[in-house]
């Protein structure tokens, strides 16, 4: 097998590692490309291409994450990972575990870790690498890697999201949620939302959005019920689609361009968190991106027109 064939066979795994360390599709793709360039120019063939390439992509990702953390600390509003619609790394026996490690909630939680802790956690807890391989990848002793793993696991366990065991039940609940959303059914939405539900948006200061965070079943259900009619009036469609391995949807404008993604965290039969990514910089990999400002202005005009027409009808 040629180097190119070896690399392409392992590319899905390399991307899966890089994305979980970085939380960015574009940065993960760049890390994988840099890994190929280093592999291509290595004078001797490694005994284990998988071990070699995994180590290289991990080291590259750690370096990228260290520089990215400064930008994230200066980010406007909440920072969410770039949404991933499909994970190219397939392992049917561990599909549920891999999907949960990919969730927005899990990746936001990993932001609490140092770059080294995050890399060790991903390699050990998600992909099951041995400590000898991890030590080689991150340039630390096995003993140090064990300590990093313990520390990372403790941080993650303190805030680890709890997901429903029955993924089919999650999908059915999400389907009911989007039906109620489309119908503007406040009562239907309330039945599905947790009492302390959080609705959070990542616009990065580059797109219109509601307040950074809205909390509570009454506020969130009213906002959601009021949102869809004006959006539908201006041709926005809601396309249910898994986002980061969890139930979610893609919002598109009338031209089919991506407006934002929505993902749902579901626990104990209720929606706990609704996360929207509307920052256009984080959506370009999904496809052509809509002008969110223009769509919002048009939707607001449509809403005001409905209010005016309703008032006029009442006055007649």
TrEMBL record:
Q: Which GO terms describe its molecular function?
A: DNA binding; sigma factor activity
Residue ranges of every copy of the RNA polymerase sigma-70 region domain listed in the record: 7-69
The residue ranges of the SnoaL-like domain are: 174-256
Tell me the ranges covered by the RNA polymerase sigma factor 70 region 4 type domain, including all copies.
Answer: 105-155
Provide the coiled-coil residue spans. Answer: none
Q: Which GO terms describe its biological process?
A: DNA-templated transcription initiation
Q: Which UniProt keywords apply?
A: Sigma factor, Transcription, Transcription regulation
The UniProt entry, under InterPro entries, shows:
ECF_Sigma-70_Domain (IPR052704), NTF2-like_dom_sf (IPR032710), RNA_pol_sigma-70_dom (IPR014284), RNA_pol_sigma-70_ECF (IPR014303), RNA_pol_sigma70_r2 (IPR007627), RNA_pol_sigma70_r4_t2 (IPR013249), RNA_pol_sigma_r2 (IPR013325), RNA_pol_sigma_r3/r4-like (IPR013324)
At the top level, the lineage of the source is Bacteria
Keyword Membrane part of the UniProt annotation = no
Task: Indicate the family of this protein.
Answer: Belongs to the sigma-70 factor family. ECF subfamily.
Q: How does it assemble?
A: Interacts transiently with the RNA polymerase catalytic core formed by RpoA, RpoB, RpoC and RpoZ (2 alpha, 1 beta, 1 beta' and 1 omega subunit) to form the RNA polymerase holoenzyme that can initiate transcription.
Q: What's the protein name?
A: ECF subfamily RNA polymerase sigma factor
Instruction: Name the species this protein comes from.
Output: Streptomyces lincolnensis
């Amino acid at each position: 097998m040629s180097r190119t064939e070896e690399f392409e066979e392992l590319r899905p795994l390399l991307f899966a590692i890089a994305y979980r360390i970085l939380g960015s599709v574009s940065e993960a793709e760049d890390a994988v490309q840099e890994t190929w360039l280093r592999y291509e120019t290595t004078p001797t063939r490694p005994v284990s291409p998988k071990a070699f390439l995994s180590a290289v992509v991990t080291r590259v990702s750690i370096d990228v994450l260290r520089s990215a953390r400064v930008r994230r600390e200066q980010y406007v509003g909440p920072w969410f990972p770039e949404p991933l619609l499909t994970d190219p790394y397939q392992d049917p026996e561990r599909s549920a575990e891999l999907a949960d490690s990919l969730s927005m909630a899990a990746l936001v939680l990993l932001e609490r870790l140092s770059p080294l802790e995050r890399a060790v956690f991903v390699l050990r807890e998600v992909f099951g690498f041995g400590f000898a391989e991890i030590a080689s990848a991150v340039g630390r002793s096995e003993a140090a890697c064990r300590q990093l793993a313990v520390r990372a696991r403790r941080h993650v366990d303190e805030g680890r999201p709890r997901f429903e065991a029955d993924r089919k039940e999650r999908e059915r609940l999400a389907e009911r949620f989007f039906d109620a959303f489309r119908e503007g059914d406040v009562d239907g939405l309330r039945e599905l939302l947790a009492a302390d539900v959080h609705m959070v948006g990542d616009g990065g200061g580059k797109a219109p959005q509601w307040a950074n965070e809205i909390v509570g079943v009454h506020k969130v259900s009213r906002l959601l019920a009021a949102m869809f009619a004006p959006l539908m009036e201006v041709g926005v469609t809601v396309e249910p689609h898994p986002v980061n391995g969890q139930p979610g949807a893609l919002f598109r404008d009338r031209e089919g361009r991506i407006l934002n993604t929505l993902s749902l965290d579901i626990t104990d039969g209720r929606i706990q968190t609704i996360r929207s990514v509307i920052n256009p910089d984080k959506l370009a990999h999904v496809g052509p991106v809509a002008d969110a400002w223009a769509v919002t202005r048009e939707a607001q005009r449509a809403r005001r027109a409905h209010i005016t027409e309703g008032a006029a009808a009442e006055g007649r």
